[in-house]
Amino acid sequence: MVQTVGETLDRIRRDSRDEYEKGFWFENLTMRVLKDNPEYEIEKVQRWKDWEEREALTGLDGWDIGIDLVARHKDGSWIAIQCKCYAEDHRLSKSDLNDFLVATQNPLYSMRWIVLTCDLTGPAEAVIRDGSPPISRIDFLRHLDDPISEEEAERPVRTPWPRQLETIDKVVHGLKHHDRGRMTMACGTGKTFTSLRIAEQVVPDGGRILFLAPSIALVSQARREWLRHTVRPLECRVVCSDYSAGGRGETNEIHLYGLECPVTSDPEELAQLLSQESDNTRVVFCTYQSLMHLTRAQRDHQAPAFDLTICDEAHRTTGVDRAGSPHLLDEYNGFQSVHREEFLRSQKRLYMTATPRIYTASSVLAMKTKGFETVDMSDLEVYGPELDFLSFKDAVNERLLSDYRVIVFGVHDENITPGLREAWLGIGEYLSEERQNPFVVTGEDMMRLLGTSLAINGFAQSEGLEQPGRLHRTIAFANSIIRSRFFAEGLKQRQLRSLITRRARQAEEGADRSLKIEAQHLDGRNNAYQRLQALRRLGKAGDEDETAQVLCNVRLFGEGVDVPTLDAIVFMEPRDSQVDIVQAVGRVMRLAEGKKLGYIIVPIPIAPGEDLPQALSEGSDGFRALGQVLRALQSHDGRLAEEPFKFVTIGKPAGEEHEGIEGIQLDLDLSQDLGIYAHVVAASGLGRPGLLVADQITYAVRRAAAIFEEGDLAEDLATAMGLTVDRNHRDICTIAALLVGNACLLHRRLSDMPHMEWLDDLARVSGDPFPAEALQRDWEKILEQDYKPVFEPALAVLGVLPLRRFASSALCILAECANRTATSLSELGYDHAGPLYHRILPNAEATGSFYTNNLSALLLARLAIGQDFVDWGDEEAIRRLRIMDPACGTGTLLMGVMHVLKSRLGEHRRLSDDETSDFHKLIVENVLHGLDINRHAVQLAACNLTLGAPTVDYRRINLFTLKHGPQPDGTVRAGSLEILGTTDSKDPLGSLVRPLATQQGLGAAQVDDTDLELPTGDLDLVIMNPPFTNNVKRGRQYTTEQVKQMQQHELGLRDHLTHVDPQAGQVIDANSISTFFTPLADQLLSKKGGGGEKRTDPTLVSIRTSAGTLAKILPATGCVSASGLEERRFFADRFHIERIITSHDPKRINFSENTAIHECLLIARRAQDPPRQRPSSSPFAGCLPPLRKRWRWPMPSQAGVGPSGAAEPFGRPSGWPKVSGRRCNGSTPDWPKPPTL
Questions:
Q1: Is the pTM for the entire model greater than 0.85?
Q2: What is the DSSP-derived secondary structure letter of residue 923?
Q3: Neighbours of 1214 (CB within 10 A)
Q4: Domain definitions of the chain by residue range
Q5: Poorest-confidence range of 334-343, 467-476, 500-509, 976-985?
Q6: Which residues contact 673 (CB under 8 A, 6 or more apart)?
Q7: What is the fold of 162-394?
Q8: Which of 38, 59, 810, 1102 is the residue whose CA sits 20 to 30 A from 948?
């Protein structure tokens, strides 16, 4: 029968007839625990009176002198042990230890252990702190849950989880080819255990391993973990000389007497340990701060190099060093010195972290100008390639971690009762007197206490899995010890419990009384026993208890704390360090039986006269408190950007009708909450979905491009890509890096496909000694199946890269970035390539090409594609949709359309991952169409559109490159505008004005060189941001004669259009290319052939129908200027203007990048019967004044002319929604007038 140590201890206390018998049995139990736990490294242990060597070594008989047990350490030394079995609330005094301390003042004993079931008094703790020989206190209660069987049994070997096995395989493979490497695993997924199994494969028996961590506590935990699970004999030593080893102002360190193992700081002793030949593997566990002792052991005593150095919490080794400073020990910084071979000789280095720290390019440059070199984890020379990456998302999907949700409570000051306020102020006065320094209790402090108590008591209402309920186990983080103490005392106040109970009973008659909160503050002054006891109470709190346990701290429980049953953490104050936030969140994501979610509580104080949206968007504390938390989470969990509604599941508190407390429920189905949601995402940075991912890709591409440029590869790359060599070298290298990066992204997505199991993981590619060759092998195999537009140009780039280290580094940078971002990027509807490509696009100004930013694309697509756009339950109806961007570039607008289509279908019915991928494939192969004049842009668009469904058949992708400019045969082409001259007739002589080009004559090249039909009409939606420039700037890349020829060709297209459709022809202004695109969109939306109302011209083959939508970005001047009158008349005749959106944010008046033009979004639908038309509206993006009324603005009467020729209103009255926001920076204090259309 198997019992636990705790059950056995209870039986000893219950059944023992006297103290002597209790002590006897407790000593037996202690011997069993010491032998069963490898962390103690005990060879044998005996009672004092039974010790075989006692008389020979000490000359003493077996009489009791205060020593209960004697153990022999595996290194051959002796350990004297005293066992004290007292009640847990007892405090052992100095006098209780005197006999033992006197009896063991003998150099025979290398260590002295006191095994305790209780705490020590201050004097007793002081005595053992500086004892010699060293004294260690062994917390027996740490083993209460250990199993203990009646018969000794072999300790079972722990088998890694499948995902850990995958990491082990990748890292071992990488370290075979690289001396350095990185392993990134989410908090709580077993980095320490995984590193043990890696070391067992990398380092042979008898080898030497160094394990570094930033604190004694983490060193101790790692040592225990390794000894508990090793499959071979280890000879361990701990190196530390200062109990405050945490550094950087830490308060989470433990004292050396809390360690149960030999500790040294003697370089000579370390050299002896490492130099001797042994079959046992030597492992040194050391803090970064004590690394200098190992440096001296190697430098002064010729200790050999380590076979492997493992750097835990490796993000702590980043930072700045003064450039060119001499490497002297008196300037020693172990956190950075670990990287340098002159300080630490090691064959291999493995850097482990959950939170990699990477600095921005601007901050690196700023530090360099001040004489500092910056070290961050993207530096391949320092940290090596990333050998594996396990994200939060993957860890949750693999069930290695529980998921999390964020609870936000906004609390008004007026809701705090006078009695409660007085009690909290009294706590502040007491703390001020105690520390003899004023401590001011602010209204924000009180509101945070109230919000935290509400969350703990289950006031965040939701449904099913999302229902937090009462939270019985919580860790709260403050920014200072004094405030942590205040929060602990404040949560325990009786008046607070009464207030929460009244609130609950106002909301629900007969509701239970609120939980009694038992809060405790801990900091670095609390010893290991006190911390462990507090964590034990926290972990054992029951869900049915009427109490809630809360531990308040600053940074004590940020790293290395494992309480799987923890319900929630609270950020009581705004927290600036993203690493600290993610590490803290890692505490609540541990798995436990029955646990579904961990919760992150963020209380938000609301100032008088404010509401929650204002507190989030205007108040600095509200912005920082929520924004910093969400940004930190987003930086390590891409899902937060993909589905912010899901992760910020914030419930309205019960009794919402009572003033004073506000909560928010981010639910798409509740329209009244969407305004608040907008402020939440704005405050957090989540209002720009995918920006973080795109920024990572941009950073990686730029770094790789810089390496290509420094390697003088521009000319070779230009030749490989078919570009002219006279272009800017940086632009050439950037295009090359983009093409390779895109191929890596698709490679990462394909590696998840069952039919491509043979494809190497990108992490293995990074670990390969020759990544170019590894990628080339895989990509050539991929090309045998499909994907030519992506991998063919990328292979051309690889083909000219030299087998040099710098080129390999560039490829590793791109592969690592793709490995991290590909999965998230596929779901975001985000064009990552556009921002970079359009900046380097040759002749962008001459062609009028502007990149549409991703937010604008998503907004435009969502406005165009409403719930009634198609029958979302009819897959065939969706398949028949035809949507085109006639100037698609890298596919930004098409990506936005794809995202919205998937979102709309998801609103109609829940989709599995496989169904989502199938739907994505259906849309790309059937619905979306894109045209452009830049071949590389079209290739990038193809990759963008296929990331969400790598099984897309590239032969069916409707992306086309159209010829533009002078052609080899002496003619000129106008790109998409050639469609204006097409006809479905096989005989192009049907026109009396000019020969009309047939569709076959457009010269459109499908992205995979497949012969696909290019639709030139009968589309359901045209979405576009057409080129915008005038003839003065246009054509600068051509000769004067070629420019003249281009203009004549375009005039010919206009004349032809005027002949077949006079009104459309009048819209075109020959001085502006953008005016061609509105008639082009009209033609693309027109139905080819018979049926419906025909125009009068006999050559006309297109007719207008009641279907079709135009979504367009256009200059705002087109809505008000005289030059835009003909286009407005054209719209008035053929479309119903549903919505025009302009921005009145003075910092952002446009929807395109790299332009100062004031732009607007236009949604126009084919004119329908008045009852079916939505009212026209002209909302403003940006600042809105705090008006609660509903306004209706008539549209200007001079806007346009109707079909009858009489002046008519342009559209219908504009409906202004109820809004709540802030005043516009003083510059527009009143309602801004809608633009004159």
A1: no
A2: I
A3: 18
A4: 2-149, 162-394, 402-684, 694-855+884-951, 1106-1237
A5: 976-985
A6: 664, 665, 666, 667
A7: Rossmann fold (3.40.50)
A8: 810
